[in-house]
Design goal:
Its main location: nucleus. The chain is α/β, with parallel strands linked by helices. Among the domains are: about 55-180, no CATH class; about 415-640 and about 690-745, Purple Acid Phosphatase, chain A, domain 2 (4-Layer Sandwich). Helix content is about 25%, strand content about 20%.
Length: about 750
C-alpha cells in the first residue's frame, strides 16, 4: 500500500487538534481536524403528540379561512378529513400556536392553484387527498415550511409543494409561459369521448360531480330533468322580481303532479316529450305524466322554426282539463315515472328550453374592469374537458392565445395567420374522384407560407361508401386497409402539411367495427375511432415527413395524425376554445320523427328578410376559381338587395336552434338512436361550445351562428353529381369564431 504524501510545508496546527496516527501506513493530517461539536444542519423532526380533533371544533376556523378569505365552501367530508389531518400533524398546539390556521391557508391556496371548484371536496377539479399528502411532506414540527419541496411545477400546475406567496406562483407561471413556444398547435388537444370526464349533475347540491362508479349500460337518468329545470330557473324569464312596480312578465313551472284538482287553470310544464304505451303523446317529469292535446298548439318560434320530436325536453303552456270519470288520476295509478294522472293538457304553445350562453354558464359575464371574475353564479370552477376550468386556467390561456394568435408580429404589422381549421366531410376513400379532389384541396394549402398554414384538417367519415362492413357486399378489411394506404400515398406529396398540421379522423356509421353489426342502421354513440390496424401506413407518412423537416430541433410542433371517437372535442388554449365534432345524418332522423302542427302561426308573422352577405354566412355561389372569384367580388361591390332567405338557410337555422336548445347531440329516444348512457356527458352541449361541427351528408354545407356558437356543416365533400357541382368544404376561423363555405371545381 502506498503511503500518503505529506505537504512539504505543513501548516501550523494546534496540538489539541492533532490526531496521532496509530499506523505507519497513514500520515499526519495536512489540516487540523476539528474535534469540537459540529453544528447539526439537519434538524431532527420534533415529535408531535397526535390528538383526536372533533370536526365541530375546527369548523369556525375553517369557515374563516376557506369561506371568508378564499371564497370557498368546504363540505362535511372534507372538514372531517382536515380535522383528522390537523390532529395528527399539529397535535395539541393546533390552536394556541396558530398551526392549523396557517395549514388551512396553504391548503386553500393549493386548491385554488390546482383548479379546484368552489366547493372543496374530493374530485371537484382537484384532489384534497393529494394536496394533504404533499403538505405532509413539507411539514416540520407541525409547521409548513415554504419552499422545502425541490420538485419543479409542471406547466399545468400539478401538485409539487406549497408556495410561499401568490405573487411567487404567478411570477413563476409567467416566466414559464415566456419560455414556451408560440406555436398555437402546442395548445391544441383532441379529447376522445371515452377520455372525457364523466360528470353527472347533482340536483341537491346544484353542481356537477365526477362519477366514480364503474361505467354501465343502464345508469340512472333521473338527473336529466332536474338539470334542465335548474338551467331554466337561471334564465331571467323565470325569475320573479321583488320590486312592486316591476311590469316584467315572468314564468313559473308547475310540476305535473300539482295539476290534480286544478282543472280549467292555465299552467306551464317542463318535461320529456314521449309516446305513451297507448300510442298518444304525453309529457313526463319526475312527478308524473299527462297526455297532451296539440291539435291547436302553436310552436315557438312561429313559422316552423324548430323541430319537435319524442325524446326532447319541451316547455308546454296549456289548460288542464280533468276527466269527467276519474280513473287512475292519482299518482301510482298507471305505469310511468311517478304514475300518470287523468285528464289532458290542452297545449296552447310549445317550445324548447331556452339556450344559455357559454359566458353565463361559466360565470364569465361577471368579469370586472380589472379582469377578475366574480364568484357568483355559473360553473366556472368545473373542469368539463379535463384541460382545466375557466376560472383556474382561463386568464392564463387567454394570454397565451394573445401571444400566439392575436399579437402583431413583424415590422409590417401583420398578425399570425395560423388560425384556420379545415373541415371535410363524407370522404369516400374507395372513390378515385375523392382522391383527386383531396390532391386539389391539399395543393391549395400546401402552397401557402408557413404563417398561413391551417392548424388542423378535420376529416370526417364515412371513409367508405359501402354499407355493412364485413358483409358480402360491404367490403372487407383488406379493401378498407387499401383505402387508407391510398390516402397515405396522396399525403406523401404534401410534406409541408404533414410536418406542420394536425390531421384528425372522425369515423362514420359505415366504418369498422360498429358497422359490422349494424349493417347500415344507426350505431350506438359514442363510438370508438378507426382501429390502428388500418392506419399504420398513414402514421409512417407523418413520421417520415417530420424526420425530413427536423421539427424536433425547432420550437414548431411536429405534425401528427389522430384517430378519435365520434363524437369528440377539440380544445384550443384550454377552456378558451371548445369545438365539438359529430358525424350523423341527424336531419333525416328529425324529419322522420317530428311532430306536425296544424297551426304553425305563419299568418301572424311577416316573412323574415335578410341581406346577401349580411347575416347569411353560407354563400353557395362562392367558388375558388379565378373567373368566378372576380364575378363574386363584382357582386359584393354592387348595392346589396333585400330578398327572402333561401330554404337552405332556414333549414340550417332550424337544425342549429333545435340541437343547441336541447343541449345534447342526440335528442331522441334510445329506440331511434342508441346511447351509452354512462358516457352521455360526451354528447352534452353544456356549456355551449364555441363551435359545433355537425357533419350531415343529407344537408348542404352551411355556417350559422346561434347564441354565440357557430354551427358548421361541411356537407358532402364530393357531390353525387360531381360533373356539374364542385367539391365543398368549410374553413373555421378560430379568432373570429366564424366559418366559411369554400368550393373548388376539379
Amino acid at each position: 500500500m502506498d503511503k500518503a504524501q505529506t505537504p512539504k510545508m505543513p501548516l501550523p496546527i494546534r496540538g489539541a487538534d492533532i490526531i496521532p496516527s496509530s499506523s505507519p501506513a497513514f500520515g499526519t493530517p495536512a489540516r487540523p481536524v476539528r474535534t469540537g461539536n459540529r453544528p447539526n444542519t439537519v434538524q431532527a423532526k420534533s415529535s408531535v403528540l397526535p390528538v383526536l380533533l372533533p370536526p365541530a371544533l375546527l369548523r369556525p376556523l375553517a369557515f374563516r379561512t376557506f369561506t371568508r378569505k378564499h371564497d370557498l365552501t368546504i363540505s362535511s367530508n372534507t372538514l372531517q378529513t382536515l380535522a383528522i389531518f390537523i390532529g395528527k400533524n399539529c397535535g395539541s398546539r393546533w390552536r394556541e400556536d396558530g398551526l392549523a390556521e396557517r395549514l388551512l391557508d396553504e391548503v386553500a391556496k393549493l386548491w385554488r392553484k390546482n383548479g379546484g371548484g368552489v366547493i372543496v371536496e374530493e374530485g371537484n377539479g382537484a384532489s384534497i387527498k393529494a394536496i394533504l399528502q404533499m403538505v405532509e411532506g413539507n411539514m416540520t414540527n407541525g409547521k409548513v415550511v415554504p419552499g422545502k419541496s425541490a420538485d419543479q411545477e409542471d406547466r399545468r400546475g400539478s401538485l409539487t409543494g406549497p408556495a410561499s406567496t401568490d405573487e411567487r406562483v404567478n411570477s413563476n407561471a409567467e416566466e414559464e409561459d415566456e419560455s414556451l413556444s408560440t406555436d398555437p398547435r402546442r395548445w391544441m388537444k383532441v379529447i376522445d369521448a371515452y377520455d372525457q370526464p364523466r360528470l353527472t349533475y347533482n340536483p341537491n347540491k346544484k353542481h356537477f360531480e365526477t362519477s366514480i362508479n364503474k361505467p354501465s349500460f343502464f345508469p340512472d337518468p333521473s338527473h336529466q330533468i332536474t338539470f334542465y329545470r335548474d338551467r331554466l330557473l337561471r334564465n331571467e324569464s323565470f325569475q320573479a322580481s321583488s320590486l312592486l312596480n316591476n311590469n316584467k312578465q315572468t314564468y313559473k313551472i308547475t310540476p305535473i303532479a300539482n295539476l290534480i284538482g286544478r282543472g280549467g287553470s292555465r299552467h306551464m310544464c317542463l318535461g320529456l316529450l314521449s309516446v305513451s304505451p297507448a300510442g298518444e303523446l304525453s309529457l313526463t317529469d319526475l312527478t308524473g305524466s299527462i297526455m297532451l292535446d296539440l291539435s291547436e298548439t302553436v310552436p315557438i318560434p312561429r313559422g316552423n322554426g324548430a323541430w319537435f320530436c319524442p325524446g326532447m325536453m319541451v316547455l308546454v303552456e296549456g289548460i288542464y282539463e280533468e276527466e269527467e270519470i276519474v280513473k287512475g288520476s292519482v299518482l301510482g295509478g298507471n305505469s310511468g315515472i311517478g304514475g300518470a294522472i287523468g285528464g289532458k293538457l290542452m297545449g296552447i304553445t310549445i317550445a324548447g328550453p331556452p339556450c344559455e350562453k357559454r359566458e353565463v354558464t361559466l360565470g364569465m359575464n361577471s368579469i370586472d374592469s380589472k379582469g377578475d371574475i366574480g364568484t357568483s353564479g355559473g360553473f366556472g370552477w368545473v373542469d368539463f374537458l379535463g384541460v382545466g376550468s375557466e376560472r383556474a386556467q382561463g386568464a392564463r390561456m387567454r394570454k397565451m392565445e394573445h401571444k400566439s394568435l392575436r399579437q402583431v408580429a413583424g415590422t409590417e404589422g401583420q398578425r399570425n395567420g395560423r388560425c384556420n381549421i379545415v373541415i371535410l366531410g363524407e370522404i369516400h376513400l374507395d372513390n378515385t374522384r375523392t382522391l383527386d379532389a383531396l390532391k386539389s384541396v391539399f395543393g391549395i394549402y400546401n402552397a401557402l407560407p408557413f404563417e398561413e398554414l391551417p392548424l388542423a384538417f378535420v376529416m370526417i367519415g364515412n371513409f367508405i361508401g359501402k354499407v355493412g362492413f364485413g358483409q358480402s357486399n360491404g367490403g372487407n378489411s383488406i379493401e378498407y386497409k387499401e383505402c387508407f394506404d391510398s390516402l397515405a400515398s396522396v399525403l406523401s406529396d404534401f410534406s409541408a402539411l404533414l410536418s406542420h398540421t394536425t390531421f384528425i379522423f372522425v369515423p362514420g356509421d359505415n366504418d369498422p367495427w360498429a358497422s359490422t353489426f349494424t349493417v347500415g342502421a344507426s350505431s350506438a354513440i359514442p363510438r370508438k375511432g378507426v382501429p390502428e390496424l388500418f392506419t399504420s401506413r398513414v402514421k409512417r407518412a407523418f413520421t417520415a415527413a417530420n424526420n425530413d423537416a427536423g421539427n424536433s430541433a425547432s420550437k414548431s410542433t411536429p405534425g401528427e395524425a389522430i384517430w378519435t371517437s365520434n363524437p369528440s372535442r377539440i380544445s384550443l388554449f384550454g377552456p378558451v376554445h371548445e369545438i365539438v365534432v359529430y358525424r350523423d345524418d341527424i336531419s333525416g332522423r328529425l324529419r322522420r320523427n317530428s311532430i306536425r302542427f296544424c297551426n304553425t302561426g305563419d299568418n301572424d308573422l311577416q316573412e323574415p328578410q335578410i341581406s346577401d352577405g349580411a347575416t347569411q354566412e353560407n354563400d353557395e355561389n362562392m367558388i375558388i376559381d379565378n373567373d368566378d372569384n372576380d364575378n363574386n367580388k363584382a357582386q359584393k361591390n354592387s348595392p346589396i338587395p333585400t330578398k327572402q332567405p333561401p330554404p337552405s338557410y332556414l333549414a340550417a337555422q332550424k337544425l342549429s336552434k333545435t340541437i343547441l336548445d336541447q343541449g345534447t347531440l342526440s335528442p331522441f329516444p334510445i329506440t331511434s338512436k342508441p346511447v351509452l348512457w354512462d358516457y352521455a356527458s360526451s354528447i352534452q352541449l353544456y356549456p355551449l361550445p364555441t363551435a359545433l361541427i355537425l357533419a350531415d351528408s343529407e344537408v348542404a354545407a352551411f355556417s350559422v351562428s346561434y347564441e354565440g356558437c357557430n354551427v358548421l356543416n361541411p356537407g358532402r365533400f364530393v357531390p353525387e353529381d360531381y360533373k356539374r357541382e364542385p367539391v365543398t368544404w368549410v374553413e373555421y376561423d378560430v379568432l373570429r369564431k366564424r366559418g366559411k363555405v369554400r368550393q373548388q371545381r376539379i
